[in-house]
Design a protein that fits this description.
Elements: E1 11-20, E2 25-35, E3 40-45, H1 51-59, E4 68-76, E5 79-80, E6 88-91, H2 104-114, H3 119-133, H4 148-162, E7 166-170, H5 178-194, E8 198-202, H6 206-209, E9 215-220, E10 223-228, H7 230-243, E11 266-278, E12 281-292, E13 296-300, H8 307-314, E14 322-327, H9 329-332, H10 344-348, E15 351-354, H11 367-377, H12 382-395, H13 411-423, E16 429-433, H14 441-456, E17 460-464, H15 468-473, E18 477-480
Parallel strand pairs: 3-8, 3-9, 6-7, 7-8, 13-17, 13-18, 15-16, 16-17
Antiparallel strand pairs: 1-2, 1-4, 4-5, 9-10, 11-12, 11-14
Helix pairs in contact: 2-3, 2-4, 3-4, 11-12, 11-13
């Protein structure tokens, strides 16, 4: 295959829309705009407004007629986007979905190889791209050993190495620590400065990208809600956009009230705890912590420091490398002292878990079916199961999607679904990995308020997060893990 010519691409949507076949609903309707070669655009909109769908359309990877129905046209350099796939580089919302090969260097090189770039030019690009995104690991490091945030950097490095004419980024900093956020943004900026390309980035951290972009396009139910210079759009329409759920700098989401009561009895205690992803390779050690009823604990720290691994260990899903993790009688309630020894049914009402990647825990064919899995496993009566499911669908704005396939939901909707599924069994401890990932300002506030109510009702909340607003909003105690080993 000949090497694809780079240079900025032109993009145009003419009344474009897309309806997911299995969802039976239009993700985007009647979107019309033109993006000139070299423009840098921030694409905003409420959760579920079709931002990710539009990026997939521009990348030419939405699928055929069996996958959905298209209206209007979506063009890249004047041709249908599906015929211009070599022109676009896409970083997906879910970094796991882009890991292809077993070793870091090979994974970054994969896109260049598919574009027919000569081998002697590929590997300098690979090393330069990894340096640019701050992923300082050996080229032969197994990709399965990377944390979620590191995989996100890996995906971006693969795109940077390709040097496409159209750069499409879907929440590229969602799972990154604050230093990583700046590194990724600056890496993208350097790419655009040295190898000019057209940029379309979807990001809820609006203020991070304002120094980079020259234009804001806001998607809504009826197509494009606003389009123009960032200062103009956010200044003129800021209040109305915030009311729709768009993150607007200077208009923070509502925080819930402070806890009604002080923390209650201990439910989990850890002493001298070390945690590991792979046997014999601890990623964090010397951990001492108590998880108390009616309180929130935030686990923070840089990417790769072991936050997710600690969360899975506290949840009884990974065995400790060393040290002790025990449940008090108040939580164990007749089960073994060590959560790792509990059967799945024993975990259901004691510790609920929301994984960093929502797709790792989707089981059913519909959203409603997903919420029914836990209650049915507990043997709850049909009327009680229906009551719990209906309440959660309503509280987390998922009712219109009850019959949709969970895999067709947006990233933010999948996150709310997995939170709801964990809540369906009413666990006493809830461990959530990046609980606010992909949320707009409105659903962020609603989700945090729900967690605060659970805390006030006596549950223990453990949140692994880079979102320091979550820490503040939940009045959470903070456990900071150190640098990655």
């Amino acid at each position: 295959m000949p090497e694809v010519t780079s240079g900025p691409a032109a993009v145009e949507a003419r009344g474009w829309g897309w309806r997911h076949a299995s969802r039976n609903a239009w993700a985007v309707t009647d979107a019309s705009f033109r993006i000139e070669p070299g423009e840098r655009v921030l694409l905003l909109g409420a959760s579920g407004s079709g931002k990710s769908t539009l990026l997939h359309g521009l990348a030419g990877v939405l699928g055929g007629e069996d996958d959905g129905e298209q209206s209007g046209s979506l063009l890249v350099d004047g041709l249908p986007a599906a015929r211009q796939r070599g022109r676009a580089g896409l970083v997906l919302q879910d970094p796991d979905a882009q890991v292809i090969l077993a070793r870091v260097g090979d994974d970054v090189a994969f896109g260049c190889e598919n574009l027919g770039i000569p081998r002697d030019r590929i590997w300098p690009r690979v090393r330069s791209a990894l340096d640019a995104v701050g992923l300082d690991v050996p080229l032969d490091r197994p990709t399965k050993a990377l944390s979620g945030g590191q995989k996100q950097r890996l995906a971006l490095a693969g795109l940077l190495a390709m040097r496409p004419g159209l750069v499409l980024l879907d929440e590229p900093t969602a799972n990154l620590d604050p230093a990583g956020v700046a590194e990724v943004r600056d890496a993208v900026t350097r790419l655009l400065d040295t190898h000019p390309a057209t940029l379309v980035v979807v990001e809820h951290r609006v203020d991070v990208w304002l120094p980079v972009v020259s234009r804001v396009i806001v998607l809504g139910e009826d197509g494009v809600l606003a389009d123009g210079a960032p200062a103009e759009v956010l200044g003129r329409d800021g209040a109305s956009l915030a009311a729709r759920g768009v993150w607007v700098p200077g208009i923070p989401p509502l925080h819930p009230p402070a806890p009604r009561n002080p923390p209650g009895e201990a439910l989990l205690t850890a002493a001298g705890l070390a945690v590991q992803r792979v046997a014999g390779h601890p990623v964090a050690s010397g951990i001492g912590v108590e998880v108390r009823a009616g309180s929130a604990l935030a686990i923070t720290g840089p990417n790769g420091a072991g936050k997710s691994t600690l969360g899975l260990t506290l949840a009884g899903l990974l065995a400790p490398a060393s040290g002790a993790l025990v449940a008090t009688p108040a939580l164990a309630d007749g089960a073994a002292r060590e959560p790792i020894r509990w059967a799945s049914r024993e975990l259901l009402t004691r510790i609920g878990t929301v994984f960093q990647d929502p797709e790792h825990q989707l089981l059913a064919k519909t959203v409603r079916g997903e919420l029914e899995v836990g209650p049915r496993a507990l043997g709850l009566p049909d009327d009680e199961t229906a009551r719990r499911v209906d309440e959660l669908l309503e509280r987390l704005r998922l009712s219109p999607l009850a019959l949709a396939n969970p895999y067709t939901l947006s990233g933010g909707e999948k996150r709310r679904l997995t939170v709801a599924a964990a809540l369906a069994t009413a666990p006493r401890v809830l461990v959530l990995d990046e609980p606010t990932f992909g949320q707009d300002a409105r659903t962020w506030a609603e989700l945090v308020a729900l967690l605060a109510r659970l805390r006030d009702d006596g549950s223990a909340i453990v949140a692994i997060t880079h979102d320091l607003d979550v820490v503040e909003a939940l009045h959470a105690a903070r456990l900071e893990l150190g640098e990655a080993p």
